[in-house]
Design brief:
This protein has a single domain, classed as 2,3-Dihydroxybiphenyl 1,2-Dioxygenase, domain 1. The radius of gyration is 16 Å and the shape is globular. With about 130 residues, the chain is of the alpha/beta class. About 15% of the residues lie in helices and about 40% in strands. The chain contains 2 helices and 8 strands. The strands form 2 sheets. It has a 4-stranded mixed beta sheet with strand order 1-4-3-2, covered by helices on one side.
C-alpha cells in the first residue's frame, strides 16, 4: 500500500462552526464546500479534514447520527510556546494548558465548538549528558 494523502472525516452538528474554528485558528483553507459539507486543507503536511453534517444522507444509515467524539486531532508543530501565545491572544478555546510529559512530549489542547479536540504537540530535544 502506498498512501498518497491523509484525510480525517468528522461528522459534526454544525459544519460552519468547525469550519470557522479550523480556518481562523489553525490555518486551514476551504478546498470545497456545499450545504452540510466542507473539505479543508493546508499547504503543509497536516492531515486534510472533511466536515460532514450530522444526519447527512451521504453517510450509511448506521453512521448518520454519530458525531466526532473521543478522538484527538494531533498536529506536530514547531515553536509550540509561540503557537499557544498566538492562540491565547486570538481568544482560541484552550482547554488544556501547555505542559510537558515525562517522555518529552510538550502539548496543549483546544476544543472546537462541536467538541472536537485538537492537540498541538512538539517533541522536546533529549538532553545529551
Amino acid at each position: 500500500m502506498n498512501v498518497s494523502a491523509s484525510t480525517l472525516s468528522l461528522t459534526v452538528a454544525d459544519v460552519d462552526a468547525s469550519l470557522a474554528f479550523l480556518t481562523t485558528h489553525l490555518g486551514y483553507q476551504v478546498a470545497m464546500a456545499a450545504d452540510g459539507f466542507a473539505s479543508l486543507t493546508r499547504e503543509d503536511a497536516a492531515v486534510d479534514i472533511v466536515l460532514l453534517a450530522k444526519g447527512t444522507e451521504v453517510l450509511p444509515p448506521e453512521q448518520r447520527d454519530q458525531q466526532a467524539t473521543g478522538l484527538i486531532l494531533a498536529l506536530t508543530v514547531s515553536d509550540l510556546a509561540a503557537e499557544e501565545a498566538r492562540l491565547r491572544a486570538a481568544g482560541a478555546p484552550i482547554t488544556m494548558p501547555l505542559r510537558e510529559e515525562p517522555w518529552g512530549e510538550r502539548l496543549f489542547q483546544l476544543t472546537d465548538p462541536n467538541g472536537v479536540v485538537v492537540q498541538l504537540v512538539e517533541w522536546a530535544t533529549p538532553s545529551t549528558s
